[in-house]
Specification:
The longest helix has 56 residues. Helix content is 64%, strand content 11%. A 4-stranded antiparallel beta sheet has the order 1-2-3-4. It has one domain. The protein is an alpha+beta fold. Helix 4 packs antiparallel against helix 5. The chain starts with a helix and ends with a helix. It has 5 helices and 4 strands; from the N terminus they run H-H-E-E-E-H-H-E-H.
Length: 236
């Protein structure tokens, strides 16, 4: 255990600058998310609570205000499930998502440090576009997760659960109401997917180039062998 902690300390010393960037920008996302939630709560509250059939936790709703006609409303409500109102208002689902949020909160920085150490980023003179995309994506996911983790863990009265207020149902009917944290998590996941696709295409191009170079070398070798064979025949 002592060796493991020493190794972990050394990794943190190597990457403390990136760790600071990660923590600061994640906290900024969380702070912006919390501020916007409480501004929405103050302007669109108070919340009215009702427990619907089959639910264990209250459904809470505030006011709805049109911001951009046909595009955007601000509609105050709380959510005890996943993002965009998925999962329902059951205690079991809320506990599941609390556990998931805390697992991400604890292990995502450890995974990031492991990847930084494994691929020896400190020895690189500059990060590539792919590495920067991954880093930004993880910041978005971590900061958004932290914003919703606070709500899920500590809000059990009024409000009960995650505060949501961004409503684009005028544009996309039946689309769930969400918040700033949800937006950053979704954007972070999309960045990871896009980066993986870019890497796949790069790997394909690389493998094609390697295959072409192998074919070229084989052709050159065969030509050289034919020429050498002709030279030996002419000398005989």
């Amino acid at each position: 255990m002592s060796k493991m902690f020493k190794g972990f300390k050394e990794i943190i010393k190597k990457y403390y600058k990136l760790a600071i960037y990660f923590i600061v920008f994640s906290l900024l996302i969380c702070i912006v998310d919390q501020i916007t939630k409480w501004v929405a709560y103050s302007l669109l509250g108070p919340l009215s609570s009702t427990i619907l059939p089959g639910e264990e936790l209250p459904s809470q709703y505030g006011q709805s205000v049109t911001i951009i006609p046909g595009l955007l409303n601000f509609t105050l409500l709380t959510n005890n499930g996943a993002a965009f109102g998925m999962g329902g208002n059951t205690l079991a689902m809320r506990v599941v998502f609390i556990i998931i949020s805390w697992v991400v909160f604890i292990f995502l920085p450890l995974i990031l440090l492991y990847c930084l150490n494994k691929y020896k980023f400190v020895e690189r003179k500059k990060l590539t576009f792919i590495h920067i995309m991954y880093f930004i994506a993880l910041i978005f996911i971590y900061g958004g997760n932290l914003g919703n983790l606070i709500d899920r863990t500590f809000y059990w009265g009024i409000p009960c659960g995650v505060i949501d207020f961004i409503d684009i149902s005028p544009l996309i009917p039946n689309f769930g109401v969400f918040n700033i944290a949800d937006s950053f998590v979704v954007i972070g996941v999309l960045l990871v997917v896009i980066t993986l696709i870019i890497e796949m295409f790069k790997d394909d191009d690389k493998s094609k180039k390697e295959l072409e170079s192998v074919k070229t070398n084989v052709n050159n070798d065969s030509k050289n062998s034919e020429e050498n064979g002709k030279e030996t025949d002419s000398s005989n």
